[in-house]
Amino acid sequence: MRLLWFALLLVLNFVILSNGDGNKASSRPDVVNIGALFTFNSTIGRVAKIAIEAAIEDVNSNSTVLGGTKLAITMQDTKCSGFIGIAKALQFMETDSVAIIGPQSSVIAHVISQVSNELQVPLVSFAATDPTLSSIQFPFFVRVTQSDLYQMAAVADIVDYYGWRDVIAVYIDDNFGRNGIAALGDQLAQKRCRISYKVGIPPVTGVSRSEMLDLLVKVAAVESRVVLLHVNTDLGLKIFSMAQSLGMMGNGYVWIATDWLSSVLDSSWPLPSATMDTMQGVLVLRQHIPDSERKREFYSRWKNLTGGSLGLNSYGMYAYDTVWLIAHAINRFFIDGGNISFSNDSRLRNSGGGRLQLEAMSIFSGGKLLLNSILQSSLLGLTGPVQFNPDQSLVNPAYDVINIIGTGFRRIGYWCNYSGLSVVPPEILYGKPATRFSADQQLYSVIWPGDITVKPRGWVAVNNGKHLRIGVPRRVSFREFVTQVSKTDVVKGLCIDVFTAAVNLLPYAVQYKFIPYGDGLKNPSYNELVGLITTDVFDGVVGDIAIVTNRTQIVDFTQPFIESGLYVVAPVRKLSTGGWAFLRPFTPQMWCIFAGFFLFVGVVVWILEHRMNNEFRGPPRNQVITIVWFSFSTLFFAHRQNTLSTLGRLVVIIWLFVVLIINSSYTASLTSILTVQHLSSPIKGINSLMRSNEPIGFQVGSFTEHYLSKELGISRSRLVPLGSPDEFASALERGPKNGGITALVDERPYVDLFLSSHCKFRIVGEEFTKSGWGFAFPKDSPLAVDFSTAILKLSEDGELERIHDKWLSKSSCTSDSTELESDRLHFKSFWGLYLSCGVAILLALLIHVVQLVLQFRRHLPEEPDSSPTSTGQASSLSRSFQRFVSFVSEKEEQFRNRSKRQLSDVSVSNEENRYESGGNPERREIEIL
């Protein structure tokens, strides 16, 4: 009986467990409903409809995909209308659709994604490329195509690759167009490029041809010639046709079309020859589909499906893969225990929807599970790997870059987010290290609009009746550089001649008009003049404009046409030689150190020679005289004492070398002092000005005041503004004690012109800034680049030098055979020589002392030990020191003789001790007898 009950329990338990497993692997329905939302009669829609139907057929005929469950799809036509698209999408929400393919339009996607989030129905789009459709805001929106964020990154890389800087954006003014162009602006900014002009076209069919022509005329009036076209198919083809009629598809223009045009080329090929003629030389982006056997097979099948009347574009292949992605996700959904069930939203039940029947809309209970299944799917489709990044974007975004030529088009390269532009397919590059260096970017040659192979400049100076407004300073001093002729509109000067010569070298015509700036009473502020470019008062500034940091931050400068830099000008006086001119080559410090080294060398040589050289011995008075005489006689290499020790000779050789160098330098400096008339100034350069508290002059309007006060920290109270060369001279002559200045700081061209007629002053010190003069233009203006090229050409041809000689006269002070006093010979110029000599002498002295100590300890007997008291120890040290001094004073010859005697006495004593200790007995008896 117990066995029977036990068997029943096992069977019951088995049934319960079986039911539990069955709940996990949920029962599959016979049919699963999905929807599709797109425009049937559109370039993308016509291809997508056939591709989706083919995919549904393939999925349902393959029992291994859904395990016997069939997909039932309902397609809704949005008819290119956002309103109809929204209404059709809401109808899907009233049915039990677990997912919706589409929408095709980014505008509809923004609205429907909100509803999809609430009802938890995944929205899987194969064509909505708006980059702002993010997974953060719309978690149930899944994009099975590439975002325009990557397409605009490709456009930015192309613009940067060809060296263009300004782009004109022509776009359809809806979410798709505006957000795509916003992404382009961000990508261009990373390349230091920009969108210089935007043309938004209303997304309605009622835009007349005349209105379109007006918009394109405005585009033609802009300097940039690089045009990006980001519109829909019908609008884009109309724009090309009208642009051709306006001459905008010819030489000099660059047209870049986004992938709307490649969709037309792929699905409607071949296009009429008249249509192809309107877009010759256009660059087009196309979503890259890796080549595969499956892709080729589907192309063959596609011809049968369409009868050859419709080509297959990338969006059609993405639509086909979208169906397979949903099928695999639904299969995973069932495996993970998902059930298709819907529940009503209580908020809609009580909303009073009237005839809208909002209460019929229901929430998909398994929506989150199906969404996760979609995002975690990984399959190989027609378009390659279908996988998602964490941000719900497809992996490996890539585009083909194609060029329309004649009756066809040619692929000139690829772009992928991994390595940028390349002529190698992206799928090959994924297996190599990523390189995004400029030198690694590559595309094949392009046939540009106008049937040219030379890369277009990308911009032109527009000849629209307007003149470039060129600001010039109305100077009242140094009028040789730039000035307005009195009572006329004529402007002339060195800077003006350089500008007009550069204009003549430009490869295009530039119309300009000079506009003087300033009141004519004083030189204007050049910072204010340059700043007017940023406020659109001037299109450029020409004149003696220094290229300095704070100006380069707001405008672009050309290549400098004159080198400049700040110099110090000060009064100078002539130096007379006088009776003590022979002391001037050395500074007092140098004289003292030189004399000290003479005595130091003499003392060292005496120490090294004293014990063995009789010429360095004698009474103390004679020895002192010998030291002094030997030291200073080496100055003329006339020392009569011979050196006998090796160390002494080494010290003398080193010292004589030092004397030779010092003597030669002294002779050269004294010769210059006595033969050339020198000028002297208490100011030695900018450093001495910074250390003093005396007033400094500067030219009104220049950047000198800002540099001295801000960069060098000189108080503004010390800075005196001066307006003309006469004011310069007057202030310098008066000096700081009479209300003048101690020195003038100004740029080199002004200084040269000032000194050419004022010979009482000279440049003191070295140049302490490096800069130049250039022409200023707005930031990123291509004129700055072209003018720089022209200025370099003028420099190479020698034209700049000729213009310089025309306006700037040679100095009238060159006849004076005078020069500014150079620095005297300082110790800092010879400290290395002195250091080397001093180290060698001290080393020789140290070796000598060590030798003496060793000799003293080896050859002099030790004194008998005295009492161990401290007094006794001190007395013993004193006696030892006295004995050492006596030993040092002793002649080497006497020391050697005494050492020999000591050695002889020691040997006799040892012999006697040997006899006494039992030597030969016979010898001992003889000694006794």
UniProtKB/TrEMBL annotation:
The chain crosses the membrane at residues 588-608, 620-638, 650-674, 831-854. Coiled coil: none annotated. Pfam families: ANF_receptor, Lig_chan, Lig_chan-Glu_bd. CDD domains: GluR_Plant, PBP1_GABAb_receptor_plant. It is found in: Membrane. Residues 898-929 are annotated as: Disordered. Glutamate-gated receptor that probably acts as non-selective cation channel. InterPro entries: ANF_lig-bd_rcpt (IPR001828), GABAb_receptor_plant_PBP1 (IPR044440), Glu/Gly-bd (IPR019594), Ionotropic_Glu_rcpt (IPR015683), Iontro_rcpt_C (IPR001320), Iontropic_Glu_rcpt_pln (IPR017103), Peripla_BP_I (IPR028082). One of its GO terms (molecular function) is ligand-gated monoatomic ion channel activity. Residues 911-929 have a biased composition (Basic and acidic residues). Residues 469-810 form the Ionotropic glutamate receptor C-terminal domain. GO terms for cellular component: membrane. Keywords: Disulfide bond, Glycoprotein, Ion channel, Ion transport, Ligand-gated ion channel, Membrane, Receptor, Signal, Transmembrane, Transmembrane helix, Transport. This is Glutamate receptor. Its main location: membrane. Residues 1-20 form the signal peptide. One of its GO terms (biological process) is response to wounding. Disulfide bonds join C759-C813. Belongs to the glutamate-gated ion channel (TC 1.A.10.1) family.
